[in-house]
Structure formats: structure tokens, C-alpha cells
Amino acid sequence: MARSRFRSDRGLTLRMGGVSFGLGLLYVAFGAVLISVFFNSGGVGGGFIALVIVLGMAWGQWYFSDTLALKSMRAQVVEPHQAPELHAMIDRLCALADMPKPRVAVAQTDIPNAFATGRTPNHSAVCVTTGILQRLTADELEGVLAHELAHVANRDVTVMTVASTLGLLAGFITRWGMYLGAGRRDRNGAIGFLIVFLVSIVVYAISFVLTRSLSRYRELSADRSGAYITGRPSQLASALSKISGDMAQIPSRDLRDTGAVSAFFFAPALNRDSVSAMFSTHPPLEKRLAQLAQISAELGEQ
């Protein structure tokens, strides 16, 4: 966990370590299968191409994670003179938490939400939507921003980025692998693509379980950290209730467009017609509110 004034969370640290170890093994195994299949199908040249692809993906998902996430939301980085109040809030929170200030971005969408992304606290970004800026009070927005900065300080956003990218690759191969392999006339080539297809299904399933196990816990951890750093958990609870209620009014088509970063959102981008709670990347609203109410009582918040 990053050194900051956010409260440490041993449970989060252990989960991040376990998920990172599991993802490392998964990535090595997945890469080995790809290299082996390409080598058997295309010789040394095929194996070399597969190795370049695997290493290129590993580097790309690490180095460009924040840029890709912002582009997927069509978000624009804003300077202090463009969003002075937003920057002032983040400046104050970063000073309280004793952490580097991330880039600040705004996405032009009515979906009320926010997210953090980046590979390290020194290379990160916090993005808010115009929808959340229009709906929340200053105190509520500060609570949301504290929550997002906690993700950056805890580095859980980095683990989630790597996990999500690996799952997306496996999902792509699962969807298109058989189609691509259908064009192979030789028996060995067809068998090789079948192996990649089956392994991709397993990788996607394991990646799904790993990301969900970490994602739900990290949201509770960020809620706790954000509530303690501001000392006003009731404002964070108010923002969470308001956003969750308004999310039901957003068209499903608009929510689907945010699929690439939905796991990183402050509140799940779901409505009643989306998916069941068992597939959600976030813990139940009631559980989050109950935790914030407990912290409020502990702090003696009026």
C-alpha cells in the first residue's frame, strides 16, 4: 500500500497480493500457451511473434492504462484555470492525505460517476463526469473525490487495470478464436486454435473471479479511507445514495458505452434492467451505507 495518510487496510493489502500473484501465474501460463501454439503453427517466426505480442501487451496495459481509460470515456484533462473549484478540492485532499496530485479530467456525460486510473500514484488521473458535477453538493463531491484518491494511494487501481486487460484479451480470443481458427486448413493449426480457445475460456473465468473478489472489497476500503480522511462519512453516504438513485434513470444504451471502465466507477453503472447483483463489480449499496453509518457514529458526526 502506498505511503499516505489514508488509513492502512491489511485486508486490502493481502487481497491485492493474492490477486497479483494469481494474475502473474495466469499471464505466464496464458503467454506460454500462445507462444507454444504459434511456434507449432509457424515455427520460430510464429513463436517470436507471439512472444512480442505477450510482452507488448504486458507493457502497454501497464504504461498506457490511464490514457486508455480516459479515452474510453472521451474525458479531457482540465487545468486549474478550467476547473478551479474541482482542482481546489483535489489540492486540499492531496495535502490532507500527503500524496502526489493526479491529473484531473472531466467526461462530458450525464452519467453521474467518477473513477481513478493509473499505474502509480505519480502517474494517475481522477476523472469526474459532468453528470456528477451537476448533481452533488461541494461536500458530497469532496467525499467522492476522497474515495477515488484512496484507490490511487492504495494502488488497487493498478491491480484492477492489469486484471481487466487480461480478461478482455481472453474474452476477445474466446469470442473470435474459433472463427479465426476456422480458416486453418491443416489439422495441427485447427487443434492449436482450439487449445487457445479453451484456455482463453478458463483464463477469462479465473480473471473474472479474481477481479470481482478484489473489486468489491476495494470499494468498501476506499469508502472507509475517504470517510476518515474527510471526517464526514455522512456526505459520502449522501453522494452514494443520490448517485445510485439517479443511475436508474440513465438509458441502458448509455450505461453499456461505459463498460470499459465500469469496474472503476465510484458507483456501479447499472439500472434495474442490467445484470444481477452476483455479477456486480461493487458491493451492495446497503452494505456500503451501513459501513459509513458505523464510521459516522464512531466519529461522533453530527
Shape: elongated
| Count, helices | 10
Strand content: 5-15%
Largest sheet: 4 strands, mixed
Structural class: alpha+beta
The first-to-last residue Cα distance is 31 Å
What is the tally of beta strands? 4
Q: What's the order of the H and E elements?
A: HHEHEEEHHHHHHH
Strands in their spatial order, largest beta sheet: 1-2-4-3
Mean pLDDT: 79
Q: Which runs of at least 5 residues are low in confidence (pLDDT < 50)? A: 178-183, 272-278
| Alpha-carbon Rg, integer | 21 Å
Helix content: 55-70%
Q: What number of structural domains do the residues give?
A: 1
Pfam family, one: Peptidase_M48
Subcellular location: Cell membrane
Organism: Aeromicrobium alkaliterrae
Active site: 148
Structural description of this entry:
This protein is α+β, with helices and mostly antiparallel strands and about 300 residues long. The chain is built from ten helices and four strands. The protein has one domain (about 10-300). The chain is about 70% helix and about 5% strand. The protein has a four-stranded mixed beta sheet with strand order 1-2-4-3, with helices on both faces. A hairpin with a 2-residue loop joins β3 and β4 (about 125-130). The relative contact order is 0.14. Mean pLDDT is about 80; it is low at about 180-185 and about 270-280. It is found in: Cell membrane. One of its GO terms (molecular function) is metallopeptidase activity.
